[in-house]
Amino acid sequence: MAAGGSSSSKPTNNNKVLRVWEMLDANDRARMAYKRLLARPTMLEVAKNVICLLLWMETTIGVKVLQQVLEEMMSRDDDDDPCNKQQKHYQLALLIKEADGLYSYLLDEPDDALPEPLVCNIPTIVSLCGGGGRLLDFRFFKVHKQVVARGVAVIRDTVAALVFNEHLHAMLRDFEDDLHSSLMSQPAPALELMERFVPMSTTPPEDSRMVFLAFSVSKKAGRRAHGISSQDIIHHFEGVFGFPRHIERVEIEQPCTGQDSKHGIILFKSPEKMKEAMFGETSAFFRIKSHDIWMQCYMPPF
Predict the structure, then answer these.
(1) How far from 20 is each of 66, 87, 99, CA to CA, in Å?
(2) d(Cα 193, Cα 140) in Å, to the nearest integer?
(3) What's the rounded Cα separation, in Å, for the pair 21 and 191?
(4) pLDDT (tens digit, 9 = 90+) per residue, 92-124?
């Protein structure tokens, strides 16, 4: 089936043949969150935008947000305290507003996209990310806008296409009902569920050898912007870690006046060299020239 999907909670091996029903099952959390957003109620397109952005965060940079969102919605529904319920409703409304605004900022045509001043404040998303908040803030989305936009678009056309497909989910429910009620032979899924999953939209190969950087920001007034350069980072990997010729380039944010640089990327020469330089980890914390640097591999599924 030419649509798309990759597990938000169970990363897939791109060399493994996956069936449509496996993709539906793997993304059940995203489906549950989507249905609860619609029941809130939330406009259809807004709910889709929110899920697409959350799926991108969870699938490609490992920020586990969907379970948190589900738990918040379920606890709100089960809470008997009117004050608590109202507060949780307000927090969910803020999350929806922030995520929908970011989606518009990233993917809508310039004439239709929300302007930066309306989307630059995203405290609910930053809070939801927990430790990932050191990486994800509005400046991250601004600096990496092109990379994130194409990544979210791929998620929209692959994973989310399955999450939002009512016909496929109805067939999956019928199959599961038959499976649980059958006392004799095991029923077979519908042919559409057994089709091979083939993503028709992919990110460029360059994205699979990219590491996001987040620098600690000085809170001391008047301190000069970060005194760390691309060459400092390259030298650290080559001279300190002993990984010569692993890095293709390093890009560091050019901040506004009075700001420190906070974000950047390392583009490695291959996914294998990236894995070696990251010591097999998907995220890591380093100190280079007294600067704290958080490194997060970008992991687009397709």
Answers:
(1) 21, 38, 27
(2) 38
(3) 10
(4) 899 999 999 999 999 988 777 777 877 888 999
The ranges assigned to domains in the chain are 2-161, 205-297
Contact 115, 101 (CB under 8 A): no
- C-alpha to C-alpha distance for 36 and 69, rounded to whole angstroms: 10
Length in residues, the chain: 302
Whole-number pLDDT of residue 256: 78
Rounded Cα distance between 287 and 277, Å, is: 15
Nearest residue to 54 (alpha-carbon basis) of 27, 20, 19: 27
pLDDT, average across residues 24-32: 94
What pTM value is reported for the model?
0.86
Give the C-alpha separation, 287 to 240, whole Å. 11
pLDDT at 87: 80
Report the topology of domain 205-297. Alpha-Beta Plaits (3.30.70)
